[in-house]
Amino acid sequence: TFPHPRYEIIPTQTVHDGDRAVRGYYEETRTAFPDQRHELIALRHADDAVITEFYLLGTHLGPLGPVPPTGCAFKVRMTAYFVFRGEDELVCERIYFDQLSLIRQLLAGLDFKSPKGILTGLKVLRGLAKMSRGPKDTIPDGDEYTVAAPEITRE
Question: Cα 133 vs. chain centroid, distance in angstroms?
Answer without folding.
Answer: 17
